[in-house]
Amino acid sequence: MADQYARSREHSEPTEISAIRWDEPPEGPVLVVLDQTRLPAEEVELVCTDAPALVEAIRSLAVRGAPLLGIAGAYGVALAAARGFDVEEAAAALAAARPTAVNLAVGVHRARTAYHAALAETGDQDKAAEAALAAARTLHRQDAEASRRMAGHGLALLEELLPGGGHRILTHCNTGALISGGQGTAFGVVLAAHRAGRLRRLWVDETRPMLQGARLTAYEAARHGMAYTLLTDDAAGSLFAAGEVDAVLVGADRIAADGSVANKVGTYPLAVLARYHHVPFVVVAPLTTVDLGTPDGASIEIEQRPGHEVTEITVPQVPVAGLGGGTPVAPLGTQAYNPAFDVTPPELVTAIVTEEGVVSPVTGEALDELCARSRRV
Ligand code: MRU
């Protein structure tokens, strides 16, 4: 059974966005998430009381973005444990909810491991549930800290690549506080540049088909008072050609051992454009996104999403007719190609910014060395 309900959220402070929180009302523990499918029109919380509800929220993109998926996965295991559900079943369902962002499996694994270790040590189910929750809270906190450190490293890198400031940065998808325990990945760096007075303009790709750029990144940029402009994904080429882009900053859903980067579909074409136009292409991601167990880009499983996301325009807060609740923009029965992500090869990536430092040039050896260094700390 998937048990969740929605409620309006009191309007939050413009610069504060909380995408996820654990709550313990008298009826029992719940996981409260901001329903990102309803933004920017309304701030609605989904209250999940079991793992199937969270799986549904993840599949529908109410909860999304690699680091947040990891945090959600960990809390989901803690929720199952705290409510006395089958932890193994919950962990398996959560880890399989979406395949590409490795953070989801990492988050589930951390909470599940903590649960089993405590159960083996104490034989006490409540203590094991507490251990799973503690692991989720730690991951949440660590992600906030990683985001703060990535912003510092990213800002320093921008100063190095583009001395003098006045940056015009192009970004794709959504990588801010909505996907993080802190201010996010690529957007966290953009925000640091904005706060340092170094950002001239943020170019925001709309990010078809689910419009994470238009709906979510524009929402975050507006709340921070940034100078930003929204463009259709197809308009990026002419923007580069006009010399209007100084750097591209994006996040990642999985970085393979050779430095290949899986990120929201449409990222790879930007990397090709950036190379052609001699513009730095920078990936910002925490080490929880680096998967040394996946050898290369071809080995990354790319999620295929339903065709109606392409054949219809879905604006959830406006109820309209159509198979998936959206307005059809193609003849009925049209087949659609709808991969959620694409893979950018390492040779097109100028740098990968992590909380432990910057990898540039991007090679498997350099990535491996950074991961080894972080394990030693
Ligand atoms: O399908 P989504 O919205 O979950 O995709 C999100 C992205 O592709 C982000 O760019 C990615 O998770 C990086 S955020 C660190």
From TrEMBL:
The record marks C173 as: Transition state stabilizer. Its EC number is 5.3.1.23. It is an enzyme of class 5 (isomerase). Keywords: Amino-acid biosynthesis, Isomerase, Methionine biosynthesis. It catalyses: 5-(methylsulfanyl)-alpha-D-ribose 1-phosphate = 5-(methylsulfanyl)-D-ribulose 1-phosphate. The keyword Isomerase applies. Pathway: Amino-acid biosynthesis; L-methionine biosynthesis via salvage pathway; L-methionine from S-methyl-5-thio-alpha-D-ribose 1-phosphate: step 1/6. GO terms for biological process: L-methionine salvage from methylthioadenosine. The active site is at D253 (proton donor). GO terms for molecular function: S-methyl-5-thioribose-1-phosphate isomerase activity. Transmembrane segments: none annotated. Substrate binds at R64, G65, A66, R98, Q212, N263, K264. This is Methylthioribose-1-phosphate isomerase. It comes from Streptomyces minutiscleroticus.
